[in-house]
Amino acid sequence: MNERKTDIMLYIILAISILIFLYINVFSTWNHRSLADRRRIGDRAVDQEGDHISSCGGTERTTQGFLDSDDAETMKIQAVDSLDGQPLKEEASSVHFEEDTGEKEHKINPTGWHLFVDLDNLLMYVYKDGEPVKTYEVSGGKPSAPSPIGTWRIISKDTWGEGFGGAWLGFNVPWGKYGIHGTTEPWAVGRSNNSKGCIRMRNEDVRELYGIVPHNALVTIVYEGMPFYPMRDGDRGSDVQAVERALKKLGYYHGSEDGVFGSSLKNAVLKFQKENKLYATGVINNSTYERILQLEKEYDEKQKQLNRQQEEERKRLEQELE
Fold first, then answer.
1. Cα(58)–Cα(35) distance, rounded to whole angstroms?
2. Model-level pTM greater than 0.85?
3. What is the Cα gyration radius of the chain?
């Protein structure tokens, strides 16, 4: 009898152990996914009130999306060193980070209103006629949806809904609809860059800014620590515009500097890669990007040297004529 009771107890313990295992590995996973789904739905609801309406840069870039693309597959096939047949150490999805160099020089227009947005320090400095007026905490675009780096103008103002904090100040960015607005996630302001490209502020701050900054005010956005993402046909952004500008200097690109990666830029990249003995995929990965920047820097140095020589020659001729 005692043996039977012992067997029954062992079966009961085994059954309970199985139930606990199932709960931990099945039910808890289901609950976690349900929670994640609810969060995604919540995020979409916020986006419908906020960034999604304004576009805020459009489609996000994702490393996984790039790895799943035909371009990435092509790069994997071609990524073999021609000298020794060994795979290259660099992957197509490699990400390069630049460090913040510290205190930045605020190049501000001496007249009128000028906003200087520092996304490394998550601060906005407001100037009027070259003098500081106000400082606000802000949040910019996440790495996969970066804010437009450069200097722009405020070309539109509106009192949009709650997702925008009741205020919108739009920029003249050619590749998407970007601007300054409020947020339903004020806890991220001043702490992390997590928007789809727009500059977010606390609602009370953006309403104050809306009241004092006029149309045509300048907005300079800097982000030295912005991570690098591979660029390919269809991408948009300040980094694409920087490549357009560099390849135009180097004589490879002849289109407009609109920040949109189209067929003409892809052809220019292909030509650049072939002439510089890089894998000709039309995709700008780390190797291609760094080579473009290196040659652009050399080009700029030669232009400065040429300008100095021309200036010295001009002064010499003026002295001979005196």
1. 26
2. no
3. 27
